[in-house]
Specification:
- This is Branched-chain-amino-acid aminotransferase.
- Keywords: Amino-acid biosynthesis, Aminotransferase, Branched-chain amino acid biosynthesis, Pyridoxal phosphate, Transferase.
- Acts on leucine, isoleucine and valine.
- Pfam families: Aminotran_4.
- It is a single chain.
- The chain is α+β, with helices and mostly antiparallel strands.
- 25% of the residues lie in helices and 29% in strands.
- The strands form two sheets. Strands 1, 2, 3, 4, 5, 6, 7, 8 and 18 form a nine-stranded mixed β-sheet that branches. Strands 9, 10, 11, 12, 13, 14, 15, 16 and 17 form a nine-stranded mixed β-sheet that branches.
- Helix 3 packs across helix 4 and helix 6 packs across helix 8.
- The protein is globular, with a radius of gyration of 21 Å.
């Protein structure tokens, strides 16, 4: 199907220029929002309909709305960039559209045609183009999401859905100023189990991670790292980022996609960039005991996490129980920095894009 035309409902009172300029001068991640949002409805009778770009505002939900009771909800996260020539671009939006539908299938939700997903993302960037922040690492973070909107109490897939896209001007994800993050290994909580929803980008996965994340913060760490549910031995991912390990021979390891971790789009890009740089990348299980032993022996030289929000983030220190170990010199390593620089240069149009990842608007 072709994407329908979007009805534009202009904001009657958009944020004033001076107020907007102050808000995006140094925005905290996910705290500032643009004037508009995209809304599309689905019903079994009509299919996808009522596509609108409208003023951002509160949603009105009946107390019996299905999502509030049965948690049928999925989302995506991607960024739009302002390039050096003043144009705008999206990074791997087709991959986000495909992953969105993979999540929808797992959560028994209606699939959104990929061309409609992409059109909706383009619309929000176009209408709120004056919200791009000029800070280092600045971008428009885009949050497409969908929830079960049928008013019904009964355990079944919803017959109605509401898809929306909101946008948030952002700078760097981590504000601590530290050269690398500190991780807490959760040995009491797991993020996902085989056969569960670990590979879907649904809110429940993140809700399940919050108690462990809170524990990590309380103990003075930046993030939590989860182990597998079966053996509590194999490293899986952080609360919202995939992991990579760099060894003294230059090779990289990342946990395999076995259904319990999110197939990160940044993760996939890093694998491609590393292989094209002549590095060996292995997708294989890596145990927490081995991580510590390799770090202490010097065989492991770097570790980093990656994701849309934080891009590429070096790991400096890891704590499990009463034991801590340092990765390399405790700061960014050469391979981590090289891969981040390559990725960011493509995202921002500062380097050739042989992969067709960048969609200019």
């Amino acid at each position: 199907m072709s994407a329908p035309a979007f009805a534009l409902l202009p904001h009657p009172a958009p944020v004033a220029d001076d107020v907007r300029a102050a808000a995006i001068a140094d925005p905290a991640f996910g705290r500032v929002f643009t004037d508009h949002m995209v809304s599309i409805r689905f019903s079994g009778a009509k299919g996808w309909h009522d596509a609108q770009v409208m003023p951002r505002g509160p949603l009105s939900l009946d107390p019996a709305t299905a999502v509030l009771h049965y948690a049928q909800e999925i989302f995506e996260g991607l960024k739009a960039y302002r390039l050096d020539d003043g144009s705008m671009a999206l990074f791997r939006v087709e991959a986000n559209a495909a992953r969105f539908n993979a999540s929808a299938r797992r959560m028994a939700m209606a699939e959104l045609p990929e061309e409609l997903f992409i059109a909706a993302v383009k619309e929000i960037v176009r209408v709120d183009a004056n919200w791009f922040p000029k800070v280092a690492g600045g971008a428009l973070y885009l949050r497409p999401f969908m929830y079960a909107s049928e008013v019904f109490l009964g355990v079944k897939p919803s017959a109605e859905y509401h898809f929306l896209v909101i946008a948030s001007p952002v700078g760097n994800y981590f504000k601590s100023g530290a050269p690398a993050v500190s991780l807490w290994v959760s040995e009491d909580y797991t993020r996902a189990a085989p056969g569960g929803t670990g590979a879907a980008k649904c809110g429940g996965n993140y809700a399940a991670s919050l108690v462990a994340q809170s524990e990590a913060i309380a103990k003075g760490h930046d993030q939590v790292v989860f182990l597998d549910a079966a053996e509590h031995r194999w490293i899986e991912e952080l609360g919202g980022m995939n992991m990579f390990f760099v060894f003294e021979d230059g090779s990289l390891v990342t946990p395999p996609l076995t259904g319990t971790i999110l197939p990160g789009i940044t993760r996939d890009a890093i694998i491609t960039l590393a292989k094209d740089a002549g590095l060996t990348v292995r997708e294989e299980r890596y145990a927490i005991d081995q991580w510590q032993a390799d770090a202490e022996s010097g065989r492991l030289t770097e570790s980093f996490a990656c994701g849309t929000a934080a891009v590429v983030t070096p790991v400096g220190k890891v704590t499990r129980g009463e034991t801590s170990f340092t990765i390399g010199a405790g700061g960014p390593g050469q391979t981590t920095a090289m891969l981040k620089d390559k990725l960011v240069a493509i995202q921002r149009g500062q380097a050739p894009d042989p992969y067709g990842w960048v969609m200019r608007l």
